Inverse folding.
């Protein structure tokens, strides 16, 4: 009887040695299958979905067609960094006639400082921009008169209704750490025919 017990106890470790790897293999296989399904589900969620165009179509009422505007453009002749030290910026004001068929006439480009004081008119008379033509005005980095709250007021008109021009300012500083950003013009008044 003692011999039978020894045989049984010897068979148990052998049986455990054979079954344990099978159980581990089955568990690993189940984990791989589970993770594969999760990965497939994740890939399905990450697939490109084109935008719903019906939500993005431009309503003809939202296209800005006008024959005159006064446009406010924020300008920064400097910004503050490193604990309040001013970082001087060079400013390019870009005025672009976006109409492919009609001209616009720039009437004035008034530059104001942070306190609302007019510094100068950058246009000497009127300037006509033909279809898709652009012009730029430059405020050099050394010209810090405007301050961090400076702005331009741009006035333009056209004999016929046109697509409104794109007016934006690009500020660039490249001293210690390079910085660049832009601001967009905002119509204050417009005339619609």
């Amino acid at each position: 009887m003692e011999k039978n017990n020894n045989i049984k106890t010897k068979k148990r470790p052998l049986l455990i040695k054979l079954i344990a790897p099978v159980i581990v293999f089955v568990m690993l296989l189940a984990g791989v299958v589970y993770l594969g399904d999760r990965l497939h589900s994740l890939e399905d969620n990450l697939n490109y979905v084109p935008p719903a165009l019906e939500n993005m179509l431009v309503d003809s009422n939202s296209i800005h067609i006008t024959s005159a505007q006064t446009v406010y453009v924020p300008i920064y002749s400097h910004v503050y960094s490193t604990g309040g030290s001013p970082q001087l910026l060079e400013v390019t004001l870009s005025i672009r006639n976006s109409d492919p068929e009609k001209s616009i006439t720039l009437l004035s480009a008034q530059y104001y400082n942070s306190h609302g004081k007019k510094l100068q008119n950058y246009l000497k008379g009127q300037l006509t921009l033909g279809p898709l033509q652009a012009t730029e005005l430059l405020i050099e980095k050394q010209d810090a008169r405007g301050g961090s709250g400076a702005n331009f007021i741009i006035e333009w008109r056209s004999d016929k209704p046109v697509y409104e021009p794109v007016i934006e300012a690009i500020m660039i500083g490249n001293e210690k750490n390079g910085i660049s950003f832009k601001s967009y013009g905002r119509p204050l008044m417009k005339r619609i025919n």
Observations:
- The first strand starts at residue 65 and ends at 75.
- The first helix runs from residue 2 to 46.
